[in-house]
From TrEMBL:
This is NAD(P)-dependent dehydrogenase (Short-subunit alcohol dehydrogenase family). Transmembrane segments: none annotated. It comes from Tepidicella xavieri. SMART domains: PKS_KR. SUPFAM superfamilies: NAD(P)-binding Rossmann-fold domains. One of its GO terms (molecular function) is oxidoreductase activity, acting on the CH-OH group of donors, NAD or NADP as acceptor.
Length: 265
């Protein structure tokens, strides 16, 4: 028996990277998946590779009007959603601006990062609950980060937004339980997963290999994680096997947060 048989899921930022891997894993486990993103060409391609169990919809997670239209469309086309994965996120380094420390970061870039990473998750949870209410059941999965659990001096807005995602997940979990809804809400906290998000930081050519080694030198398992490894955790949280899990946070970080470089030997 497939673990998500008969379920219908929406994944944001699913054109590539972790979102695309989650969409693929969900389809493999029997779900129908709405692949959503702002990169329409890549999103269409990802969905078409998944065959008849997936379709692409444009959804900019920052825009409430787009959430409203998307959820109304899905409700009419296939009925209520069972699973929503709020995955779309940005680091703020995409446009090449590299000053994101608390002293010099611009207010504009701070707001831009929060708009996608935090407003997007707030709206995703709001409209997930709206879609799931008729069935009184569902699973919401928010992709936070290890940066939501510790401070990151060089990525202040990213860390702040991901910490807020962690906390909002718990608020949504408690709210749904209070409402008597069997809607579970959990967060996943990946670290160093090899996706295109890293391209601006790793560069290309000869320096890429060296930078990759440097980035994972503090990771106990000394390697980047793969998007499929995060997708496996999402399958668990989306499935009925996780029926007693809500408001919880799962790290997938190669052991990074298990200890500290400053730990006594
Ligand atoms: P990628 O950058 O590879 O993919 C993110 C996707 O989201 C892209 O297709 C991007 O489109 C899309 N996107 C960006 N903005 C929006 C928006 N406003 N609305 C809808 N889609 C949007 O990222 P990853 O797969 O690496 O990351 C996925 C999630 O995992 C993010 O939330 C990230 O913060 C989190 N994460 C990733 C880690 C990692 O090491 N990779 C570690 C910890 C957390 P476009 O290309 O057009 O911008």
């Amino acid at each position: 028996m497939k673990r998500l048989a008969g379920k219908s899921a929406l994944v944001t930022g699913a054109a590539r990277g972790i979102g695309a891997a989650i969409a693929r894993a969900f389809v493999e486990q029997g779900a129908f998946v709405f692949v959503t993103d702002i990169d329409d060409a890549a999103g269409e391609q990802t969905a078409s590779r998944l065959g008849s169990s997936a379709t692409y919809l444009h959804l900019d997670v920052r825009e409430e009007s787009e959430w409203l239209a998307t959820i109304e469309h899905i409700d009419q086309a296939r009925g209520p959603l069972d699973i929503v994965v709020n995955n779309a996120g940005i680091t703020g380094f995409e446009r090449g601006e590299h000053v994101h420390d608390p002293e010099r970061a611009s207010l504009e870039s701070w707001r831009e990062v929060h708009r996608t990473n935090l407003d997007g998750v707030f709206l995703g949870c709001k409209y997930a609950i709206r879609s799931m209410r008729p069935k009184r059941a569902g699973a919401i999965i928010n992709i936070s980060s290890r940066s939501g659990l510790v401070g990151i001096p060089g990525a202040a807005a990213y860390a702040s937004s991901k910490a807020a995602v962690r906390n909002h997940t718990k608020t949504v979990a408690l709210y749904c339980a209070e409402q008597g809804l069997n809607v579970r809400c959990n967060s996943i906290h990946p670290a160093a997963i090899l996706t295109p998000m890293w391209d601006p930081m790793l560069g290309t050519g000869a320096e890429r290999e060296q930078r990759m080694k440097e980035f994972v030198s503090d990771t106990p398992v000394r390697r980047f994680g793969m998007p499929e490894e995060v997708a496996a955790v999402a399958v668990l949280l989306a499935s009925d096997e996780a029926a007693y899990m809500t408001g919880s946070e799962l790290s997938i970080d190669g052991g990074l947060l298990a200890g500290s470089a400053a730990a006594p030997r």
